[in-house]
Amino acid sequence: MNNPVEEFFKSKGIAIVGASSRRMKFGNMAYRALKKKGYTVYAVNPNAETVNGDRCYPNVLLLPEEVQAAVVVIPPEKAFDLIEKVSEKGIKKLWCQQGADFSDFAEKARQRGLEVVTDRCILLYAEPVSGIHRVHRYFAKLFDKL
């Protein structure tokens, strides 16, 4: 069976659903970090026109065709209608950022045939891992939590 984490990072384009123009919000941090690491990222937020000077899409249906995966950094209760939209768009891989209970969302998404990663910080896996995430990754490996 394929490793969902490895498969996620094979995607050509990655949407950050909940990307924020506010630098201290995780949606902005993830957007900046993945872009800096060389990933092709697209910001999605209906309340922002740009994120870090880049175009921000109001919803996933308007994303370019090369987007194959999405990082979900919106609250789980607001994410359920995202399942229908990503399915319609052809996005098959979702990463639900740790820190919130996405179990019901993940179950519904998997029932729709989507690959879902939950309970993991994307910055521990997006190569090259650096900074504090490198330390966290070391301990995650040490305690067999990676």
Q: What would a concise description of this structure say?
A:
The protein has five helices and seven strands.
Secondary structure topology:
Elements: H1 4-8, E1 13-17, H2 26-36, E2 40-44, E3 50-51, E4 54-57, E5 67-72, H3 76-89, E6 93-97, H4 103-111, E7 115-120, H5 131-142
Parallel strand pairs: 1-2, 1-5, 2-4, 5-6, 6-7
Antiparallel strand pairs: 3-4
Helix pairs in contact: 3-4
Rounded to an integer in angstroms, the radius of gyration calculated over CA atoms is 14 Å
Low-confidence stretches: none
CATH superfamily: NAD(P)-binding Rossmann-like Domain
CATH architecture: 3-Layer(aba) Sandwich
Description:
The protein is of the alpha/beta class. It has a single domain (4-142), classed as NAD(P)-binding Rossmann-like Domain (Rossmann fold, 3-Layer(aba) Sandwich), CATH 3.40.50.720. Helix content is 35%, strand content 23%. The protein has five helices and seven strands. It has a seven-stranded mixed β-sheet, with helices on both faces. The protein starts with a helix and ends with a helix.
Please supply descriptive tags for the structure shown above:
23% strand, 146 residues, Rossmann fold, alpha/beta, globular, 5 helices
